[in-house]
Amino acid sequence: MNYELNRPIGDNETGFKGTNNAAYRMEGWDFITAGGALYNNLDYSFIAGHEDGTFVYPESQPGGGSPELRKQLGFLTRVVHSLDFIHMRPDPKLVKADFLQA
């Protein structure tokens, strides 16, 4: 947890996990629900001539992105905005990390 830093932490320009949306969707959810402030993934569906993000890239592409992924991440945005996120704080009594014990 980085809460004590009192600074926003971002996950910028994610990618290189293949073309499947699931990896990027899960990374976004994991990062934001762990307290991250910004999730910004590379989206290979935006290229010259396809400024609307509709380019269908080859399976050999190193990263992902698509209208469907943006829709899925939009749901994450709506969930976070529905919470009183600014006033949320970690509660060490709620979760115990036994895996840290040797």
What can you tell me about this protein's structure?
This protein is α+β, with helices and mostly antiparallel strands and 102 residues long. It is built from 2 helices and 2 strands; from the N terminus they run E-H-E-H. The protein has helices at 21-33, 67-81, and strands at residues 10-14, 38-41. It has a two-stranded parallel sheet. The radius of gyration is 16 Å and the shape is elongated. It starts with 9 loop residues before the first strand and ends in a 21-residue tail after the last helix.
Give a quick set of tags describing it.
102 residues, alpha+beta, 2 helices, 9% strand
- Name the helix and strand elements from N-terminus to C-terminus, one letter apiece: EHEH
State the helix count.
2
| Largest sheet report | 2 strands, parallel
State the share of residues found in helices, binned by percent: 25-40%
- Strand sequence of the main sheet, in spatial order? 1-2
